[in-house]
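In this supplementary section we document a worked example of the pipeline. Step one takes a protein sequence of length 190 as its only input; no multiple sequence alignment statistics are reported here. Step two produces a three-dimensional model, which step three serialises into structure tokens for compact storage. The input and output of this example are shown verbatim.
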Amino acid sequence: MPAVVHRLAGPALYAHRDGIRAVFAAAFAGPPWHSGPADADAYQDRLAADVHRPGFAGAVALDGDRVLGFATAWTSATPLPGNRAYPRVTAALGAVRTGAWLCGGVEVDELAVLPAAHGLGLGRTLLEAVTRDAPDGRSWLLTSVRADATVRFYERLGWRRATHPAPDGYGTVVFLGPHHPARDTADLPL
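The serialised model returned by step three reads:
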């Protein structure tokens, strides 16, 4: 049976939490994340709260009952919170661009596909499922600059870098979605 992607409301997505945990553990086990079982457990706990965020959107790729991939997104807060990677994002873009480009847009939080299911188009379909209702096309995400395959994946899908790595190559990169109104100005100097 071919995999089918379903966009689900928070509680319906959370019903797949064990499969999502397994995908998270497999997808983020290698470099640059090196996540272990405790990280997968922590993500499962975080997901329980995330499904209640304003504007939450979730999608799951299923082969029968088996979860092959998932994506989560929500409406970004205004202003961005002061935790996680948000301060680095604001520092990289500046307060004005952060407010105009990211706040109130659809923020993709997680996208993961089992390594054995790569190449089936699931990542693209999951990403489209959680960003299709982005206001004025304003969707965005961030990832590690050290995740070469992930960065290339987003670039192939038409996502545009809005930030660039530090000279030492560490840090995060912000991507604007393919329909984001600022994507053509994202490469302009700050």
